[in-house]
Amino acid sequence: MAIIDDRPLSRAGLHAMLQAVTPETRRRLRPSVVAESKRAHVATVVSAARPKLLLSGDPSGRASMTVLDAVTRLPSPPAVLVIAERLTEADARSLLIQGAAGVLLLRSAPQHLTWALPAVAEGSRALSPEIADAIVPGCPTPVRSRHGARERLARLSAREREVLALLSDGLSNRAIAQALYISPDTVKDHVRTLCTKLRADNRIHAARIAWQAESAG
Q1: Percent of the chain beyond pLDDT 70?
Q2: Pairing of strands 35-37, 53-58
Q3: What's the rounded mean pLDDT across residues 141-169?
Q4: Partners of 56 in the beta sheet?
Q5: Are strands 35-37 and 126-127 parallel, antiparallel or unpaired?
Q6: Higher local confidence (pLDDT), 144 or 137
Q7: What pLDDT shows up at residue 31?
C-alpha cells in the first residue's frame, strides 16, 4: 500500500489511521505501507514499489483526479481509495467515473476502513454511507434513514447483534466463532439470518446498516 498526499501531516494521519484498524483486518490484508509520496511522483512510486492499493488523501477530492489520471495510464494499476476532507456529490461521481475504487470522508473514515479495505482489495467499491446515500439512490434495499436502520437492528436477537458487531469490526467467521465460543457453521447461520432480517445483500451492507444505527444513537 502507498499513501499519496502532498501534506506530510496528512500522510502521517493516514498512516496512523491504518495502524488503528482491527487486528483481524491487519492479519487478513497485511496493510503495510511500502511508500509515501506527493501526487506529482505517484507514477514513479507505483512503478518502483508496485503497491496494490493507493490511499489518496485529499482536501476536496479534486486533487485525487490527477492521481487517478496518472495511475490509470500505467500497466496493472493499483486500486485507489480516496479519503477526502470534504466532497461535493459531483466530485464524488467524477472520482468514481475516473476509476476510484472507493471514496471515504475523512471524518468517518476510521469507522469504515475495517470493511472498506477488504472490499477494495476484493475488487468492490467502497463508499462512506453519507456518499452512497447521495449518489447511489438506486442501491438494493437501502436504509434511507438512521431511524430505519435502528428499526431493522431491533429485529435481531442478542446473539445476532453480537455477531453483527464483530462482523462490522472486520472479523472473519472463524474469528467470530472463536470470540463467541461457537462453531464457524453456527456463525455462518447467524450471518445468513441477520442479513435476511436486515434485508442486507451481503456482510458489507449489513455492517453499513449497523453503522447507521449506531450513528442514530
Answers
A1: 88
A2: unpaired
A3: 78
A4: 4, 82
A5: unpaired
A6: 137
A7: 63
Q: What is the pTM of this model?
A: 0.66
Residue 81 has pLDDT above 90, yes or no: yes
- Distance (Å, rounded) from C-alpha 155 to C-alpha 213? 12
CA distances from 14 to 34, 69, 155, 200 (A): 13, 22, 36, 30
Instruction: Quote the DSSP letter at residue 78.
Output: P
Length of the chain: 217
List the grid coordinates of 41.
Answer: 511522483
Distance of alpha carbon 78 from alpha carbon 46, whole angstroms: 8
81 — phi, psi (to 5°)? -110, 115
The three grid cell numbers given for residue 25, joined into one nine-digit string = 483486518
Cβ 210 vs Cβ 165: under 8 Å: yes
- Check residue 141 and report its DSSP letter: S
Compute the distance between CA of residue 149 and CA of residue 168 in angstroms, rounded to an integer: 14
Residue 138, pLDDT score: 46
Answer yes or no: are the C-beta atoms of 29 and 119 closer than 8 Å. no
19, 46, 175, 188, 208 from 2: Cα distances, Å: 14, 8, 28, 34, 26
